[in-house]
Amino acid sequence: AHCAVVNANTQAVRGNVEEYRLSIPVVARGTSVGALTLGRACAEGEFSEDDICLAEQFAVLLGLAAEQQRLMKASETAARTKAEFLTMMSHELRTPLNAIAGYAQLLEMGFRGPLNEEQLEAVSRILRGQEHLLSLVDGVLTYSRLTNGTLILASENSSARQLIDVVTTPLQEEFDAAGVSLVISPCPPDTYVCVDTRRAAEVLRHLVENALKFTLRGGEVRVMCEAAGRQVQFVVEDTGRGIPADQIEAVFHPFVQVEKAHTRTVDGSGLGLAIGRELAERMGGSLTVTSEEGKGSRFVLLLSRATPLRDAAKIDTLSAPG
Fold first, then answer.
1. Is the separation of the CB atoms in 208 and 236 below 8 Å?
2. Of 234 and 267, which is predicted with more confidence?
3. For 109-228, where are the alpha helices, taking DSSP H only?
4. How many CB atoms lie within 10 A of CB 191?
5. Confidence band (pLDDT; 50, 70, 90) for 272?
6. Most buried of 154, 159, 221, 289, CB within 10 angstroms?
7. Can you tell me whether residue 124 is helix, strand or coil?
């Protein structure tokens, strides 16, 4: 920008040590945060108008940099405060939730006297509600740890087939109750992945549960596994309502859900897919989706392939002396 007039706050003075000094205030958000001071020997002559103009422009940049630094510090402080609050609240909520589960289980087992069928169903509903709320709390805690970098992932070899079995077997009853078919095409027995087993199962479980949630009675959910090269992909397909084209990527953003008009239920925090993608990437993989509204969705969880443990044993045996 051209500087036609020297700023009134700019001072060019002749010092007592045979030099000229140029002092320009550095301003951020209308407040002076410092000064830019330049010196020049008297033999070099006074500062020209162009010199002053250039220095003023540089002082403006310094002011912007100072404001940017202030905003970054404020943002970091806010993020840290939010993460600490979410972590504290998650832990605080788990205590009464565990107490609810404990007393409900005691009632269910008859420690306070026998219950009739209706009372048992009421206790069962309490336990299901407690489990659902606890899963929401765990989701918030996991997301908080992911965003503040405190979540530590393990690295271990896990059977892909067992991973699918661990996830799908407990859900079979829910599929039967919902009238949705669960079709499983497991991986070959020698397919292993290098992951944090607990977290990988958590991601896969959410994909299967999500498919059930968005699939109407009479529909179908398929869970498949394919190994190719150094990667293994877990595929969860459903014949549900699908995802609107304008929300395909948005579903991976935190706290975003498909519109209520397109869902069978509205439970959930909107964190599951965001956490799933972040966990997949932290484990060296990815999580993607393709979908057509009215025809269903196809989620692909890609993870790193690992060497089966027995193969490693064979190598050790072959390399042993004798």
1. yes
2. 234
3. 117-148, 160-168, 172-178, 197-213
4. 18
5. confident
6. 221
7. helix
Assign 256 a pLDDT band (cuts: 50, 70, 90).
Answer: low
pLDDT in tens, 199-213: 999 999 999 999 999
Other CB atoms within 10 A of residue 266 CB: 10
Which residues pair with residue 234 across a beta bridge? 225, 301
Q: By the 8 A CB rule, do 175 and 211 touch? A: no
Q: Letter for the amino acid at 196?
A: D
Amino acid at 208: V
Determine the Cα–Cα distance for residues 106 and 109; give it in Å rounded to an integer: 5
66 or 85, higher pLDDT: 66
Ordered DSSP codes for 86-100: HHHHHHHHHHHHHHH
Cα separation of the two ends of the chain: 81
Do the beta carbons of residue 203 and residue 280 sit within 8 Å?
Answer: yes
Count CB neighbours of 210 within 10 A: 22
Distance CA 35, CA 19 (A): 18
Question: Within the chain, how many helices (H) and strands (E) appear?
Answer: 7, 10
Angle at 146 (CA atoms; ends 91, 242), nearest 5 degrees: 105
Q: What pLDDT sits at residue 322?
A: 38
SS3 165: helix
One-letter identity of residue 46: E
DSSP alpha helix (H) spans, 149-251: 160-168, 172-178, 197-213
Please tell me the pTM assigned to this model: 0.64
The residue among 308, 272, 302 whose CA lies nearest residue 284 is 302
Name the burial class of residue 61, with classes exposed (0-12), middle (13-18) and buried (19+) by CB atoms within 10 angstroms of its CB: exposed
The pair of three-digit structure tokens given for residue 23, joined into one six-digit string: 């002092």
Measured N-to-C along each axis, helices 197-213 and 160-168 cross at an angle, to the nearest 10 degrees, of: 50
